Amino acid sequence: MDVSRADEGTFERGDDARFTGEVWLRSTLADDRETNIGIVHFSPGARTHWHRHPGGQFLFGVSGRGRVRTRGEDGHVLQPGDVIHVGPGEWHFHGGTGDSPLVHVAVNGGAAPEWGDPVRDEEFADGF
Amino acid sequence: MDVSRADEGTFERGDDARFTGEVWLRSTLADDRETNIGIVHFSPGARTHWHRHPGGQFLFGVSGRGRVRTRGEDGHVLQPGDVIHVGPGEWHFHGGTGDSPLVHVAVNGGAAPEWGDPVRDEEFADGF
Questions:
Q1: Most buried residue among A89, B38, B75, B88 by CB atoms closer than 10 A?
Q2: pLDDT averaged per 10 residues, chain B (length 128)
Q3: Which residues of chain A are within 8 Å of residue B60 when distances are taken between CB atoms?
Q4: pTM greater than 0.80
């Protein structure tokens, strides 16, 4: 049994190669199946770049409101207690809404994601 | 992309074949790798029976305080923001502490768990 304590966790600033705006990430634990758990705080309008996870991803809303969208599909607003699943290989983004920060838990499957371009403002607004 | 909305979710009472005390569970989404996400509310002292997950389990503390212990090992108090990983096949339990309720997110790996005996009061207190 492994433990990652909130009061001992380190938050790192999300870098410009993967994120737009102010984002803080805490990596926690991983298992032998390459699933890992991260806690992510987004400022309003801050968001990931387009990316995809080889094993898919679950998101659990802890606080605030977020936008989550798969390329070419309608977007979803993530609120506290909501769970979203993004399938393996789906190009998608997540972040705060325009007027709200977001804290979510991310359950990331299948090793490191592949990162793409930043999400332009038009793309961030589209489908919501 | 699949969504399980908190405001549409159904909580079911945990049954006596798997839980001791008042426990409420909301099942959300599962992926193709047989990982699924559940939200669980325990009253103080309420807990799972001994059980084990074929693919292991992550727990994320949302509110309150919990006890989590693998058989034969020391226990851990789960607090908000903490993440615990229980390895595949480890017989373990989780629940509220004696004086606090607990809400946690459970990330369950590898299909249905195997259920064992109730956790006796001495076992619930041992190792904390």
A1: B75
A2: 96 98 98 94 98 97 98 97 97 98 96 95 95
A3: 37, 60, 105
A4: yes
